Amino acid sequence: MKKVLLTAILACGMAFAGEANATAPAADANATKADANATAAAPAKGDAEAGKAKFAACAGCHGQQGEKQALGKSEVIKGWDAAKVVEALKGYKAGTRNVHGMGSTMKGQAAALSDQDMANIAAYLSSLK
Ligand code: HEC
User: Fold this and answer.
1) Is the CB of 43 under 6 A from ligand 1?
2) Tens digits of per-residue pLDDT, 84-113?
3) In angstroms, how far is the first alpha carbon of the chain from the final one?
4) Which fold has domain 48-127?
5) How do residues 41-77 score in pLDDT, each as one tens digit?
């Protein structure tokens, strides 16, 4: 009788241990899933070096570091927040942005830029302080 009770207690203990082990990997799996989601939500990364090279075509008006008011009209875009640069360039490309009455000039400039080009230029400009 005593032996049976002992076996029952041992079995019980093992069942608990088994449950604890089963819970741990599940929690890990959730953590990995959360990491994957965080990576997917991140915006396209810009390459500042590639952006600097691309910006050579813009330097005639904006200055090599975006430090000039292009044609005496635009804002100084040096140090602009990356998201602000991308938003402006997308607006010009779409023909919907015209802040200083010269949106059509910038539309021609932005027309050939891909989303990656814009992200790269944005990374370059925002890296300048
Ligand atoms: C021919 C001269 C010229 C060139 C070249 C040029 N821009 Fe511009 N840019 C302007 C003018 C003028 C504006 C103001 C447009 C407006 O009225 O909204 C402007 C505006 C901008 C703005 C928004 C600034 C503001 O005041 O809102 C950004 C960002 C910008 N340009 C980026 C670029 C990039 C990147 C390139 C190269 C791919 C480029 N520009 C090439 C003349 C130029």
Assistant:
1) no
2) 999 999 999 999 999 999 999 999 999 999
3) 82
4) Cytochrome Bc1 Complex; Chain D, domain 2 (1.10.760)
5) 455 689 999 999 999 999 999 999 999 999 999 999 9
